[in-house]
Design brief:
It is a single chain. The protein has one helix at residues 2-12, and strands spanning 15-18, 24-27, 31-33, 37-40, 51-55, 61-63, 68-71, 75-83, 86-98, 112-114, 120-122. With 125 residues, the chain is mostly beta strands. The strands form 4 sheets. A 4-stranded mixed sheet has the order 2-9-8-5, with helices on one face. It has a 3-stranded antiparallel sheet with strand order 3-7-6, with no helix packed on it. The chain has a two-stranded antiparallel sheet with strand order 1-4.
């Protein structure tokens, strides 16, 4: 049924919702405001579209009613943004939440770092 609704919106929709480039990559506890664009395809489309937001996995990301993402835990999820008055008009945004590196352990007694200009420099012990 979902695929039918998506195809119907593509063929018969009077507007299109765009939420930006994907995939979005966030780190745990990051917040990001999505700025959806409602593009009217023909004159029958309303001037303004009220949107509903959904997250596929709230253990990974939560989304507010205003489109603010909050990264909750490591993993992949999808955010769905759809028109409140016509659920065949929607878009899906893929995202990944990563964890910040909190520490690095080196098991070697000597390490060589490769700097961005290609020079090698021994690391401090």
């Amino acid at each position: 049924m979902a695929e039918y609704r998506r195809q119907y919106a593509i063929e018969h929709g009077n507007r299109r919702i765009d939420v930006g480039e994907e995939p979005v990559i966030l780190y745990k506890k990051d917040k990001q405001q999505l700025g959806p664009v409602n593009e009217r395809i023909d004159e029958s489309a309303p001037e303004d579209t009220q949107l509903t937001w959904r997250a596929s996995n709230e253990e990974v990301v939560r989304v507010s009613s205003k489109g603010v993402l909050t990264a909750a835990g490591k993993g992949d999820a999808e955010i769905t943004c759809l028109a409140e008055d016509d659920d065949t008009i929607f878009t899906i945004l893929s995202l990944r939440v990563r964890l910040h590196v909190s520490r690095v352990a080196l098991l070697e007694s000597s390490v060589t770092l490769l700097l961005s200009d290609g020079r090698q420099q021994p690391a401090a012990h």
